[in-house]
Amino acid sequence: MTTRVSTTLGWVDASNSSLTVSTVSNWGAITASLPVISRFPGLVSTGLSSNTVYDTPKTSSVVGYATVNATTITLSCGLLPNVTYSRNDSTASAPFNNGNSVLMTASPPWTDQIQVLQYTGLEAQESAHWSPPAVLLMVSTLLEIEPSVQKEVAVPMIWKSLPLANQSIEVYFMQCSLSTNNTAVVIDTQTNTLQNPMPVLQPSTQWQEIHQWTSTGWSAYIGQVLADSGGSGYQFGEGYNFTSTSEPSIVDEYIMTLVGLNLTAQYLRWAPGRLPVSNFTLRRDKLEAAIAQTVAQLTWMAGRMGSDGGIQPGEGMALVDEEVIALRLNLIFATSASVIMLGLALHTTGAFHASHDSQAPISNAGALQLLWLGRHSASVHEALQDVDDPTEANLRRAGMVDVCFASTTSDEEELPTGSLIDGLSVQESTVRDDGMSY
Predict the structure, then answer these.
(1) What span, in angstroms and rounded, lies between the C-alpha atoms of 232 and 113?
(2) DSSP 330
């Protein structure tokens, strides 16, 4: 049967909350939770699955499967061409759409790193229509791209290790558009786990240039949240006296971990003064999946914190296909029938009216005998025929009737005993004074 239950919504729109990036420090606590989520995934599975957040019932007292709403986050990343980078003031500008430029901050990275950049503004013509970027990135890994595209998107940079030991590094700038997809999913109300896997889109693995994009208030806001997280604690210094340093953020490190990069190993390589050498090739689909998962986990954590520093999630309703134990008799019907008819069997022990001279050809009242009795006894059939909901309690109440195995079987004497009950062992029995055979 179907039951309606209250749910806690999995999706919270951060852009419509009071958690502004510039005035509230709680996003720092939320982003700091990312390493914890990655280390203990089994503890935080309720309402979160990879890049999907979904509603969860408020009660676990209902046994069954609920149909709830789910929101899946996806990304599409492209390479920004002809970027101008100034390492002296750690700024970059990317031209797009007829002379307009996106401005961002970008610290010099060590090799094989991913850095979420802070969007600082737009140089645009007065009549230009533009959308702010969502997620801006700078990566210092290898990319599998065409040589013709390489010339347009690769930005050379010098890493100053020690005097006379500088190393040239190529970096790439990207813009990733965020989007959401809403669908209905089925979850187990006892474990709140997804029962049907989320459909997996076929992501593109080929890197392409991007010259324009569309964004929403939510996607632009999330981009700022990702860029404004705290430091990871790994500082990579340049020059003999470390005249400049670069420290990947917690979000940077988490995204790097998801794509297969190890920031700790990079730091151990940098510490002795080794030259930066890139040996990791970043795939587009891996990067998009990693950022989407990061955004989903931040959204989930903001909702879990609720009014205590996060975003208070909304409430909804869901339909639950409730399981009735009595209906699960397809494989264990005989055993279940014995349990359901237990009250009837107990009552019949003192309710037989057989003659002292008669003998019942049934030596016990097991599961198969009770099933046979329900088929051949008119009193049992009449008592149970009006039961619509075959719960154990309803069957017990309806099944308290007086029956007699001896009188019931006497009506069937014209049929061979073996045809009444397939495989039933018939033995001579003794009849007690109360009429019950044993």
Answers:
(1) 13
(2) S
Among 172, 130, 138, 122, residue whose Cα is nearest residue 152:
172
Q: Determine the Cα–Cα distance for residues 433 and 387; give it in Å rounded to an integer.
A: 34
Q: How many CA atoms lie within 13 A of 102 on its CB side?
A: 28
Token output for 34: 């990312």
In this structure, the number of other CB atoms found within 10 A of the CB of residue 304 comes to 20
CB 193 within 8 A of CB 45: yes
Distance CA 30, CA 14 (A): 12
Contact 372, 321 (CB under 8 A): no
Q: List Cα–Cα distances, 229 to 55, 198, 211, 245, 263, in angstroms.
A: 27, 29, 27, 17, 16
CB 408 within 8 A of CB 325: no
Asked if 91 and 38 touch (Cβ cutoff 8 Å), the reply is no
Residue 76 in tokens:
């599409």
Question: Residues 371, 424: contact at Cβ < 8 Å?
Answer: no
Q: What is the pLDDT of residues 327-366, one digit of tens each?
A: 444 444 444 555 555 555 555 554 444 444 444 455 555 5
Largest CA distance in the chain: 117
34 in Cβ contact with 341 (< 8 Å): no
Neighbours of 431 (CB within 10 A): 18
Residues 418, 369 contacting (CB under 8 angstroms): no
Across residues 245-267, what is the average pLDDT? Answer: 92
Query: Which one is predicted more confidently, 353 or 56?
Result: 56
Do residues 301 and 37 touch, judged by C-beta distance below 8 A? yes
Q: What six digits make up the tokens of 434? A: 């109360």
Pick left, alpha or beta for residue 431 (phi over 0 → left; psi -120 to 50 → alpha; otherwise beta). beta
- 62 Cβ neighbours under 8 A, 6+ residues apart: 3, 5, 189, 320, 322
132, 181 contact by CB (below 8 A): no
CA gyration radius, the chain: 35
Asked whether 284 and 202 are in contact (CB, 8 A), the reply is no
